[in-house]
Amino acid sequence: GENVEQHPSTLSVQEGDSAVIKCTYSDSASNYFPWYKQELGKRPQLIIDIRSNVGEKKDQRIAVTLNKTAKHFSLHITETQPEDSAVYFCAASFSGGYQKVTFGTGTKLQVIP
Amino acid sequence: DAGVIQSPRHEVTEMGQEVTLRCKPISGHDYLFWYRQTMMRGLELLIYFNNNVPIDDSGMPEDRFSAKMPNASFSTLKIQPSEPRDSAVYFCASSLRVGADEKLFFGSGTQLSVL
After folding, report:
1. 8 A C-beta contact, residue A109 and residue A7
2. Which of A36, A89, A95 sits opposite B100 (nearest CB)?
3. I need a surface site. Which of A9, A69, A85, B108 has the fewest CB within 10 A?
4. Residue A89 DSSP symbol
5. What is the DSSP string of chain B?
6. Are strands B88-95 and B31-38 parallel, antiparallel or unpaired?
7. Does B71 touch chain A (CB under 8 A)?
8. Which of A34, A46, A48, A29 is nearest to A96 (CA)?
9. Which residues of B touch A41 (CB under 8 A)?
10. Which chain B residues are closer than 8 Å to A34 by Cβ?
11. Do B102 and A32 touch (CB under 8 A)?
12. Of B41, B50, B58, the CB nearest to A98
């Protein structure tokens, strides 16, 4: 089955700096890569996703990149703000059969004011 | 729609007792997932259903865990007997495979504490 590894497990940045979270996946058949944000005590919520036919996608201060050859994908947050502090999960799934989403272990991001 | 609804929000029980967690997915969604979240293991997929049929239960840790989806609007996750190591937050999520839309909508979770 799919295995998703995520690094780092914790990340502290100064407000205004950039943050990068990296993930690798094992199953070359995976073609959909969402990112979820979970604030303390809340439910995970989708913030951005990317499909394997796209190398990069941006949404305001958030961007995701995908390297299919290396099976790597990354989340980039620019101009970080205190409200970006949360746990971020990457995930991978295959859009072709049954939808099974495998999550990474999460990155706790702390933005220091 | 009110979103994915889980109950109870918190459950405290003693070791050996039966625990039943409940989930109502978003109306019209055809996938339902049960996840367990712990600090050590993150979000683990326990089981998922498509059109009320269990597709993959390989994540269910032991025979003590069972899940059902008797209809499109209700699912249960049961632990019998419960053990302290089952303490975690259990999330239910649903999604709709329409075209390329695969967004998961999570419920608020059930915080389970087994003493």
Report:
1. no
2. A95
3. A69
4. E
5. ----EEE-SEEEE-TT--EEEEEEPPTT--EEEEEEEETTTEEEEEEEEETTEEEE-TT--STTEEEEEEETTEEEEEESS--GGG-EEEEEEEE--BTTB---EE---EEEEE-
6. antiparallel
7. no
8. A29
9. none
10. 102-104
11. yes
12. B50
Task: Judge whether A84 and A19 are in contact, CB under 8 Å.
Answer: yes
CB A84 within 8 A of CB A11: no
Sort out which chain B residues have CB atoms less than 8 A from A51's CB and list them: 100
Contacts 24+ apart (CB under 8 A), A62-68: A64/A33, A64/A35, A66/A33, A68/A28
Close Cβ partners of B83 (under 8 Å, ≥ 6 residues apart): B15, B64, B114
What's residue B41's pLDDT?
Answer: 85
- Kindly compute the dihedral angle of the four CA atoms of residues B33, B38, B39, B43, in this order, to the nearest 10 degrees: -10
Q: pLDDT (tens digit, 9 = 90+) per residue, A53-101?
A: 889 999 999 999 999 999 999 999 999 999 999 999 999 988 766 767 8
Torsion sign over Cα B57, B31, A106, A50: positive
Yes or no: say if A103 and A42 are a contact pair by the CB < 8 Å rule.
no
Q: Is there a cis peptide before residue B81, judged by omega within 30 degrees of 0? A: yes
